[in-house]
Amino acid sequence: MSVLPQKDLQFVANYRVAIMVYKYKRKLPKKVPVSQALIDEAIRKVRNNELSIRKAAKELNMAESSLRDKMKVKRTKRSGGQTTLTRDAEEELAHLLIVKAKWGFAAGREELKDIVQQYVIANKDHDTEVGRQLKKLCRFKVS
Predict the structure, then answer these.
(1) DSSP string spanning the chain?
(2) What is the mean pLDDT of residues 76-103?
(3) 33-70 burial string, b = 16+ CB within 10 Å, else e?
(4) pLDDT for res 6
(5) What are phi and psi of 34, to 5 degrees?
């Protein structure tokens, strides 16, 4: 049994149908761009113990975590495992393989291994940086 009269029940039923779902949109603070020169100056002051990170971030009107991220020393590591060849040697080999592929002679996996092995054998005995690196790290036997 309902307590409300029939007329009120119909109004309540119609009211439920008319309710719209409201999607909340979070209001983000306006981001004010900060010049890189100001950021570098703030980082220098923090590293010289003239300012704390919190005070420097407040002066720049930026998040403390953002300033901490910018202070981190970025070490560029190459993806993958440890390399045997130097970066220059790898770039030279890559360039030669790209040229070969452009000429229409792309190398498969086994052929690529053979090419690298021939490069190592040819440069292992030279008294260069690449040769010394190869002598130290490459121990495969030539068949």
Answers:
(1) --SS-HHHHHHHHHHHHHPPPPPP---PPPPPP--HHHHHHHHHHHHTTSS-HHHHHHHHTS-HHHHHHHHSPP----SSS--SS-HHHHHHHHHHHHHHHHTT----HHHHHHHHHHHHHHHHTSSSHHHHHHHHH--PPP-
(2) 79
(3) eeeeeebeebbebbeeeebebeebbeebebeeeebeee
(4) 55
(5) -115, 135
At residue 3, does pLDDT exceed 60?
Answer: no
What percent of the chain has a predicted confidence (pLDDT) above 70?
73
- What residues does each domain of the chain span? 36-71, 87-137
Q: Kindly report the pTM of this predicted structure.
A: 0.37
Nearest C-alpha neighbor of 41 from the set 62, 58, 54, 60 = 60
pLDDT higher than threshold 90 for residue 46? yes
| pLDDT tops 70 at residue 37 | yes
- Tokens standing for residue 111: 């052929």
